[in-house]
Amino acid sequence: MIKHFDYCILGAGLAGISLAHELSKDNATVCLIDPNGIASGASGTPLGLVNPATGRYATLTWKAVECYSSVLENLHQVQMESPVQFFKKTGVLRPALDGKIASRMKENFDLTEWPAGWAEWLEEKEIKDFHKGINCVGGGIWLPEGLTVDISCFLKEFVRILTLNNVKTYFGNNYSISKKEGNWEISLSNQEKFLAEKIVFTTGSSTNELDFWKDIPLHPIKGQLAVLEASSPISFQHAVSALGYIASLSTRKFVIGSTYEHNFEDETTNVKGLEYLLTRFEKVLPDLRKNSNVISQWAGIRASTPNRMPILGKHPNKENLYIFAGLSSKGLLYSAYLSRKIKDYLLFDEPLPAEVDISRFK
Q: N or C: which end of the chain has fewer CB within 10 A?
């Protein structure tokens, strides 16, 4: 007898895995499909930050408190059942690198109602005392609640736990979908077939390459990172966000990133991207740059939208097809909170936040 699921989720990245978790908590039957495996796309970045103050001037992100508490809950839950440490509350230091940015950042800081304990303005000398050898002009912001996460490890552990809780996974096979008797039939390249009442596309930057979603305004952005190793143990544990970011979960290896390439020829790493990263890295931490060597590179394609907000909701014409995409560089921060929102939308017909509802593009 052919298997039947309430929900089929296409894509095993931050969005898809987080949504599988939320739906299964409410006893929905769920299958998770990805031809390339867990975290094979942009979610496979070596290290990521939960940084509640983004952009050049450290602007408090949309629904920052709700998003932060949701992802922290998921991280703790998975960490409790994992033998591998994949995240730390490291904090994020945001030094300004010129006077104009410092002035705008300070103005932004003063006008923002920060949650208690989330942000502290530091003058230039205070930042240089806090982090020896860092470049800074005019001061910056210290965000003690910032998190550093090995996202790929987190998601692999997350899926391992989900499979123990009856989420069925199908990795390594291509798929096709078609309508059959009021349901959707999913056919895998290994000849296996099953039915699902509803399908949610969490397929990231490739979503609008599919016929179902070809008119969705998703813009692909290539991001490259580099992994470096210092010649001696690094003297700081916090992450740094300036001209990209610098983060580590070990004493010598660290990640620098990221490029934001709107026009690119392919998805692979290249020398141009590495040179861009190293040039910016040297402007922030020149001594560490001199005493470290590149050991690997990584590249991924993330999806953005015209207003840089995710897209959630149902297909305008096809019954029981849904989308959860466009998380861009804030995937780690947004994924858990928005998974809960789309779960409430799917199961209980609760409205989606207007800022992310697909209907805004009609």
A: N
